Amino acid sequence: MTGLVTICDPHGQPLQRFVRTRGQPQRPKQHRLKQLWVDSKPSTVGPSCQDGEIIKLIKARRWHEHIKILWAHSRTHKEVVGADLLQQLGLNTPAIHEMGISLPIFPQSRYIGYYVMDNLLSQGLQEVHQLFEDPNTPESLRLTIIDNICAGLQAMYRNKIVFTDFHLANVFCNSDGDLTWIDTGITVYHMRNKREQKYAASIQRLVNYYDDSMFTQQEKQRLLQCLAIA
Fold first, then answer.
1. What are phi and psi of 142, to 5 degrees?
2. N or C: which end of the chain has fewer CB within 10 A?
3. Model's pTM, two decimal places?
């Protein structure tokens, strides 16, 4: 624990107070969102007024998510720990500078936690979903990205990890197609049958998630080849 932190909206109004559980003590005691990029049911995301950083606030979708904070199994914990695990596998994730959990822990809290990470856009990376929607993206780059996605998902699987909710907005890349994985709420499955089932479902969901204009047949085939490892 490194103290209390307040997150404020773009107008400077406090959104919520948290206990910081990760990060250097000299980090600011207050963060202000410069703007809101996302304010959806699962989370609120936007750039910090502190240059080069993104703030992600995780919302409670069900009351019991507040209870999961007590044994460090909330969605906030899962995403931060997931980033650590992927880095151990040699996969790129944004540097996470701090995280915190809601205080006091009761259902009236809008958010169950937050974390602060690198702003990948300011580092020149692009969201893969947007690249695949752009008709000017070279086919060679698209195939490189697909191959790198498959390699990453297979590396996770070999280490008993499944990125169950993976989609193209969960990954950024540079001009060479090298990937950085975000929103890493991964799950470790020690039982082989369960792992195989979840892994196969995640690949099928990715292929079927978008309409026919997103992936070519060749790209779909390469994604489905990921299943050969299971």
1. -60, -45
2. N
3. 0.91
* Segment 35-49, tens digit of pLDDT: 999 998 899 999 999
Output the CA–CA distances (angstroms, integers) from residue 123 to 35, 37, 79, 173, in the order listed: 18, 17, 21, 10
60-117 pLDDT per residue, tens? 877 777 777 777 778 899 999 999 999 999 999 999 999 999 976 655 688 999 999 9
Question: Is residue 8 classed exposed, middle or buried when 0-12, 13-18 and 19+ CB atoms within 10 A define those classes?
Answer: middle
Residue 90 token pair = 């040699």
CATH of domain 4-121: 3.30.200
The answer to whether the bond into 104 is cis (omega within 30° of 0) is yes
Neighbouring CB atoms inside 10 A of 219's CB total 18
Instruction: Tell me the C-alpha distance between 184 and 83, whole Å.
Output: 6
The label of the residue with tokens 């204009």 reads 213
Q: Where are the domains of the chain?
A: 4-121, 124-229
CATH class, range 124-229: mainly alpha
Residue 136 pLDDT > 70, yes or no?
Answer: yes
